[in-house]
Each structure stands twice: as structure tokens, then as C-alpha cells.
Amino acid sequence: MVKLAIDMMGSDLGPSELAKAVIQYEKENEDVSFLLFGDEKVLTPLFAEDSKRRTEIVNTGKVIPMEIKPLDFLRAKDSSQYQAVNAVKEKKADGIVTAGSTGGFVIGSTILLRNIENVTRAGLCSPFPTSVPGKAAVILDIGANNVNTSEDLYGFAKMGSIYAKEILNMENPSVYTLTNGQEEGKGTDEIVGAYKLMKEKNLPGFKGNCEARESLDGHHDVIVTPGFVGNIYLKAVEGTASMMNDMIKKAFKKSLKTKMGYLLAKEGFKEMKTNMDYRRFGGAIFLGVDGVAVKAHGNSNAYAFYNAIGVADKMVKSDIIKKISEAFHD
Questions:
Q1: Which of 21, 43, 218, 259 could join 132 in a cystine, given CB atoms 3.0 to 4.6 angstroms apart?
Q2: Are residues 226 and 270 in the same domain?
Q3: What is the DSSP letter of 62?
Q4: With a threshold of 0.85, does the pTM exceed it?
């Protein structure tokens, strides 16, 4: 039986939306149970009609704010997020899923769970939709760190490759460093150093550099970047996708002819929308800490949070923490 700790507080849409996901997942997966952390007065009514009841509510009094300092997080021991992460630390749960504060999640996972031995830095990893339907690109780090070394990036490459194999079922994932040119020697010192390390150590699947404009073409499986750059990349991609969506809507609403054109192209756009829907991936994974830790989007609806739970469940069942640990002891 897999047991997952769920931080039920702090998301944009509130605990009622997360509760829908938990109840649905519980009904469809007989081998999963839940520890739910949050205000029991709010949570108890949401699960009153849950006939399965493989859920246990743990009452907490605080919610971690979006921005928080490490010492403040450690002082907030009565918060839902602290208690959920701590449940994994104390082996009361196999993994944590939260749609709350990203800062709190990173701080708590780093301090309480600590890194797997020999992992220099943990990184936030997320699958991105690509131009190939059903195919994702794994990109890390997308914001857990402001500064990274070449050794950190080499570690990201190893962990990202394991994630791609175990969770996304990629048989032989290709690995690239994200930089400003394909030629060897392009990029900042840490990128150039990481390239050298991957080449010298014959990292399986390492293909070299890739530029941002080609990163989501479906032929780049794992893309490694420092966290500062990765976070800018993430937000630029999200912003561009949002802008293109708005422009397409406006273009088709322009006249009667364009509206008729939309009707003819409707199925194609529906397929494109499905392929680009980030919610099907569930969220980001904090790879490198000694425990399964999944960060769902702050505005996750029931569908997105259900998928985030599914990622955590699959990570536990694949024993990915052990596999990463073994890879760093080679």
C-alpha cells in the first residue's frame, strides 16, 4: 500500500478542488491511501461522502505563504506543508504532493528530507509538451537554485534521464545542455564545464548543446540548465503559449469568414490544445532529495492535481529514489 502525504491548503482554488482529485484517485486505485494535512473543520465535510475512507485527516493550524524564509518555514511546524513534508521524513508517508508555496516546498524538502548522498544539488524537474503529440521534454532545473556548478548540472542530467526512463517510459532518452549555440564551448562556464563532464564520463544519451528555439521539437528528451536560466525559460514558454492562445482566439473572432474557418479547423485546434495542456503532467518534481516530492501548479484544478498524485504514486512504485541513489554511487 502506497501512502501519500497531501498538503491540502495553500492552493489558488482551495481544498475543495484538491479533495475531488484525492477522492477520485482513491476510488480508482485500491493500493493507495492518504494522509491529508489541513484544517479539519474545512476538510472533514469535503470527505463526508467518501465511502472508501483510506484517508486520514491531520489537523494543522497554519498555511505557508508564497514567499517564506528558511527560518520562518522551520518555525511554522503547525503548517500543513511542513507537516506533510515531515511525514515523508519520518517514514509515515512515501511521498508528498502540494499545490501550495513553491518556496516553502523547496525549503522544506531540502532541509527536512535532505539530498540523496552524493547529489550536490536537487533540482525542480518538469515535463514540457512538445510539437510531437504525446511526447514530453524533461527540463531541469526550472527554479530551485539561483546558482549552479558544472557538477550540479551533470547530476541534473543523470537524474533527469532516470526520471524520463522510469516515469515517462523513454527507453534511451537523449540528453542536452541548454545554451546559446550548438557548438561545443558555447555558454557560461558552468554550461561548458557540464558539457565537458558529460562527454568525458560518457553520460548515456548525451548529444551536446541545444538552443531554446529547438528544445520543444520532440527530439530533445532531457534538457539541463541552471535554475536561474531554467526559471526564465519556463516563464518565457508559458508567456508565449498564453500570448499565442490569445492571438489565435482574436484572429478567429475577427469576422464571419474567420469564424467559419475556425469551425473547419476546430478538430485540429482541439488536438493542439490537448497536447499543450500542462495539467496532464501534474506539476514539477524535486529530484535529488531523499524522498518523493511533487509540486503541483498553484492553480491546479481537480484534473491537474489528480495527475500530480499519479506522478507521486508512480515514482514511489518505480522505487526512483533508490535508483537515483544507486546512480550516484557508481
A1: 218
A2: yes
A3: B
A4: yes
Backbone φ and ψ of 288, nearest 5°: 120, -25
User: Own/partner pairs for 180-185, CB < 8 Å, 24+ apart?
Assistant: 180/211, 181/209, 181/211, 182/208, 182/209, 182/210, 182/211, 183/209, 184/208, 184/209
Q: Can you tell me the distance from the alpha carbon of 100 to that of 58, in angstroms, rounded to the nearest whole number? A: 17
d(CA 41, CA 252) in angstroms, rounded, equals 47
Among candidate residues 283, 299, 315, the one where a domain is terminated: 283
Convert the pLDDT of each residue in 12-53 to its tens digit: 999 999 999 999 999 999 999 999 999 999 999 999 876 567
**Angle at the Cα of 68 from the Cα atoms of 105 and 8, rounded to 5 degrees:** 45
- Same-domain pairing of 67 and 115: yes
Residue-range definition of the domain harbouring residue 208: 121-283
Do 148 and 79 share a structural domain?
A: no
| Integer Cα distance of 285 and 311 in angstroms | 9
Same domain, 275 and 296: no
Q: What is the rounded CA–CA span in Å between residue 104 and residue 150?
A: 26
Both 182 and 86 in one domain: the answer is: no
Residue 283 falls in which region: left (phi positive, over 0), alpha (psi -120 to 50) or beta: left
Q: What is the pLDDT of residues 61-98, one digit of tens each?
A: 999 998 889 899 999 999 999 999 999 999 999 999 99
Q: What is the CATH number of the domain that holds 104?
A: 3.40.718.10
User: Distance between CA 160 and CA 223 in Å, rounded?
Assistant: 8
What is the number of residues in the chain?
330
Q: How far apart are CA 239 and CA 217, in angstroms?
A: 18
Q: Do residue 133 and residue 254 come from a single domain? A: yes
CB 46 within 8 A of CB 21: no
